């Protein structure tokens, strides 16, 4: 019981409350409203959160997020046109042209020169999430229909352009994980607006993107020339389902992920050399790993997927807030304090962590009796 005598919410209810509290009147969903740096809505975080909302039966909230994205894409259509022209001429678009990755509560793009804002995975993940929304009964109304075309054409012309990855790093690279998000997004776009398949740039993207993904010793890696694996590569198989979990290259990647970044203490690190807040283990990646195991079904996979859920549940604080990352088995513990001094404690709650929990729980609940969520 809480102080007021009401029953404390369980973690599923708490997760929905946290997400709902982070959704603004415009439909944007702020990534981590209490963390100094995360008072923004990212396409990436929001798209994964919308997926979880659809799975949790809150299509009334996810539809507002998709509507917000459509508004942003339509409002920024001119800058995306300019970015496409620059990319077609072989250049890299500047900050006044490309679509920014994060927006404040009033819908203004963040303009922080020290924080790279050009990320092509976001529109890709959004397109994928919108197609998922339609499968859950959502409608492709006028604005959304137009926004799908804008985003798909933008990706069609820009997909080979270097940009920051899902972790907002290495803006001078073409990241495998970003290409995977773009592939998932373009296939989703074509499924929603089939005429797009006839456009030359989109056709070339679909034909060539798989071949551009960096590989070392038969496994996907971060970028061409960097043999590290990255936890965000898990998303190819779950949730995007662009490859099966048994595809040889993905299976080899999974083996590397298990040996290099699945944490001894539970959870999954982003990549081996991560130092952000010491390079802890991330619930969003623990969820992705468990969801991959559910799509593979080798002996022991289901048990390990349940263990992943239990690990995430154990990270909630007494208010039912899930963190961005957990430092218990940090890869670089000596690098934690510098971030705390700079920005304070790392984000908790992180809304995407709550979404990752909801999505994994929904998928597991179709297979096993999980009992009630923890209070
Ligand atoms: C992560 C991004 C995420 C952002 C907001 C960053 O630290 O690297 O993936 O979009 O936080 O959650």
List the helices and strands and how they pair.
Elements: H1 11-21, E1 41-42, H2 43-55, H3 59-75, H4 77-88, E2 102-103, H5 121-135, H6 142-158, H7 176-192, H8 200-208, E3 215-216, E4 219-220, H9 248-260, H10 283-294, H11 301-314, H12 336-343, H13 351-365
Antiparallel strand pairs: 1-2, 3-4
Structural summary, described in words:
- The protein is mainly α.
- Helices cover 46% and strands 2% of the residues.
- The strands form two sheets. The protein has a two-stranded antiparallel sheet with strand order 1-2. A two-stranded antiparallel sheet has the order 3-4.
- Strand 3 and strand 4 (219-220) form a beta hairpin.
- Helix 2 (43-55) runs antiparallel to helix 3 (59-75), helix 2 packs parallel to helix 5 (121-135) and helix 10 packs antiparallel against helix 11 (301-314).
- The longest helix has 17 residues, at 59-75.
- The protein is globular and about 55 Å long.
- The protein starts with 10 loop residues before the first helix and ends in a 10-residue tail after the last helix.
- The mean pLDDT is 96.
- Beta-D-glucopyranose (BGC) is lined by residues 31-32, 38, 42, 44-45, 166-168, 350, 352.
Task: Give a summary of the structure in a few sentences.
The protein is mainly alpha-helical and 375 residues long. Helix content is 46%, strand content 2%.
């Amino acid at each position: 019981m809480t102080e007021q005598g009401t029953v404390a919410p369980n973690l599923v209810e708490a997760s929905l409350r946290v997400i709902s509290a982070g959704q603004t009147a415009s439909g944007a969903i702020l990534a981590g409203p209490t963390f100094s740096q995360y008072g923004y809505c990212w396409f990436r975080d929001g798209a994964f959160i919308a997926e979880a909302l659809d799975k949790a039966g809150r299509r009334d909230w996810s539809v507002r997020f998709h509507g917000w994205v459509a508004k942003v894409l339509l409002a920024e259509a001119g800058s995306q046109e300019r970015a496409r022209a620059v990319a077609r001429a072989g250049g890299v678009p500047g900050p006044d042209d490309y679509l920014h990755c994060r927006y404040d509560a009033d819908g203004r793009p963040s303009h922080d020169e020290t924080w790279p804002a050009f990320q092509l995975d976001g529109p890709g993940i959004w397109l994928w999430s919108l197609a998922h929304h339609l499968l859950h009964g959502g409608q492709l109304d006028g604005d959304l229909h137009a926004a799908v075309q804008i985003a798909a054409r933008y990706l069609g012309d820009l997909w080979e352009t270097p940009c920051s990855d899902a972790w907002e790093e290495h803006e001078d690279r073409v990241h495998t994980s970003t290409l995977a998000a773009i592939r998932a997004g373009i296939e989703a776009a074509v499924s929603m607006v089939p005429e797009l398949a006839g456009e030359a740039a989109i056709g070339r993207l679909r034909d060539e993107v798989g071949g551009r993904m960096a590989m070392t010793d038969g496994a996907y890696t971060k970028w061409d020339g960097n043999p590290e694996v990255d936890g965000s590569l898990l998303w190819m198989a779950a949730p995007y389902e662009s490859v099966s979990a048994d595809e040889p290259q993905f299976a080899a990647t999974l083996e590397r992920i298990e040996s290099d970044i699945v944490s001894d203490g539970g959870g999954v690190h982003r990549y081996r050399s991560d130092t952000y807040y010491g390079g802890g283990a991330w619930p969003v990646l623990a969820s992705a790993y468990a969801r991959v195991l559910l799509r593979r079904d080798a002996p022991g996979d289901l048990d390990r997927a349940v263990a992943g859920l239990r690990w995430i549940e154990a990270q909630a604080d007494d208010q039912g807030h899930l963190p961005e990352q957990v430092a218990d088995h940090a890869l670089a513990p000596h690098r934690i304090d510098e971030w705390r001094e700079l920005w304070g404690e790392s984000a908790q709650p992180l809304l995407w962590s709550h979404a990752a929990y909801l999505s994994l729980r929904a998928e597991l609940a179709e297979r096993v009796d999980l009992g009630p969520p923890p209070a």
